[in-house]
Amino acid sequence: xxxxxxxxxxxxxxxxxxxxxxxxxxxxxxxxxxxxxxxxxxxxxxxxxxxxxxxxxxxxxxxxxxxxxxxxxxxxxxxxxxxxxxxxxxxxxxxxxxxxxxxxxxxxxxxxxxxxxxxxxxxxxxxxxxxxxxxxxxxxxxxxxxxxxxxxxxxxxxxxxxxxxxxxxxxxxxxxxxxxxxxxxxxxxxxxxxxxxxxxxxxxxxxxxxxxxxxxxxxxxxxxxxxxxxxxxxxxxx
Amino acid sequence: xxxxxxxxxxxxxxxxxxxxxxxxxxxxxxxxxxxxxxxxxxxxxxxxxxxxxxxxxxxxxxxxxxxxxxxxxxxxxxxxxxxxxxxxxxxxxxxxxxxxxxxxxxxxxxxxxxxxxxxxxxxxxxxxxxxxxxxxxxxxxxxxxxxxxxxxxxxxxxxxxxxxxxxxxxxxxxxxxxxxxxxxxxxxxxxxxxxxxxxxxxxxxxxxxxxxxxxxxxxxxxxxxxxxxxxxxxxxxx
DNA sequence: GAGTGGTCTAGACCACTCA
DNA sequence: GAGTGGTCTAGACCACTCA
Lengths: 238, 238
Prior knowledge:
Two copies of one chain form a homodimer. The first copy, chain A, is α+β, with helices and mostly antiparallel strands. The first copy, chain A, has two domains: 9-72, Winged helix-like DNA-binding domain superfamily/Winged helix DNA-binding domain (Arc Repressor Mutant, subunit A), CATH 1.10.10; 86-225, Chorismate lyase (3-Layer(aba) Sandwich). Helix content of chain A is 29%, strand content 34%. Chain A contains eight helices and nine strands. Chain A has helices spanning 9-22, 35-42, 46-58, 86-92, 111-117, 155-160, 163-169, 188-193; strands at 62-65, 69-72, 97-108, 124-134, 137-147, 174-185, 201-211, 216-225, 231-236. Chain A has a six-stranded antiparallel beta sheet with strand order 3-4-5-8-7-6. A two-stranded antiparallel ribbon of chain A has the order 1-2. The longest helix of chain A has 14 residues, at 9-22. Chain A is elongated. The two termini of chain A are 28 Å apart. At the A-B interface, strand 6, strand 7 and strand 9 of A face strand 6, strand 7 and strand 9 of B. The structure holds a DNA duplex.
């Protein structure tokens, strides 16, 4: 533990435990020391140790049970649930995401967009339409609406970076998102842009994301090729 | 605050705050008192107040910002993310879920099922196949695999209750689930049972759920009519 | 009955935000 | 500089689990 570091002690401990799990030093199913022992050994107070453990429980790495103890989960958990964008996910998976920006500019909000963004219908908002590729294969059609004045975006930015990355970089703190995931048949226009036949099943996702203050910062409608993409998530019961 | 109640104080406070938000007494965007004031007014310590607030932040009801304060989120958040089953979701939405049990019995685990449940291939597991209706309309085809000896199920139980409800009722504490959601065309058999045409888009979900101890307790492959069902969830960044 | 995590207290100092 | 939440301490008592 490095007390001179600006990194919180609980976070330092959490990272150490996580590293030990990933290195196999703490095998799946292993019981951790109890909280008091761990606290003493690390020179920390019990609440700080609990905060570190809670962090990993929230992420699905550890399980706790009163009267029993804390264990490393038996099974590999794929991914903690996070507010990520497709671009980040693909990049993390080494899939070489590419983006073609089809449109970037102001557009009046229709009733649905207005409702989701919490602005009066007809308000000018920024509309972004992109095609996302992995390598040379089209993977998804992305349409997003943002309040104007939230962020000043250029086509170059969107070509090189994910939208969420750009939002975070300009000081927007994304906190909550409502998502709805469904399926339907591709329209002819969608099929053409996805290099598919009309009527093939596509996966759809609509998402409204909110920042720090609870204001809507983005509404998106995405259409994915179902043969190349599925949406994975890990749920943790609290 | 009722100190004689077995309900933890932090939880009592969280429920009161939640009720105040839902009753409109704390309008969206309202700033809460600061933590010390709230603690004093409720006769609680600050860590307890923080625990209550953290609970609601995790559920997406409040947002906190250092140096600024705690606010009620501006927008209505649909649903906190939870480990629920389709049956519970439908019942909660007043949709009158009905279940037809097509199969309930032992079956050897194929490679995929064995991998997901963490048992050797060929091990006998319990296989459940059901059709879920809302009213008279077929909505989904549900196939689930459970380790034998985990729970003793009857057809009656499954007809009247959701699987997760039954698992919880018999002492299984579900904690983490890996889900993957996709889309594809219905096979002829699926289309027939869903009262649809072959090749229509369906939404698919596969899920592996883990309990307290991190052992796999259920692997499910579900197929939904895409015109009647979409998967909604709320993500909260931690 | 021994051991565990769950809850709770009453403080402290700090980093951050904003006027 | 005033006010906020973030982190941290050093304890306490309890409910629960399991042998």
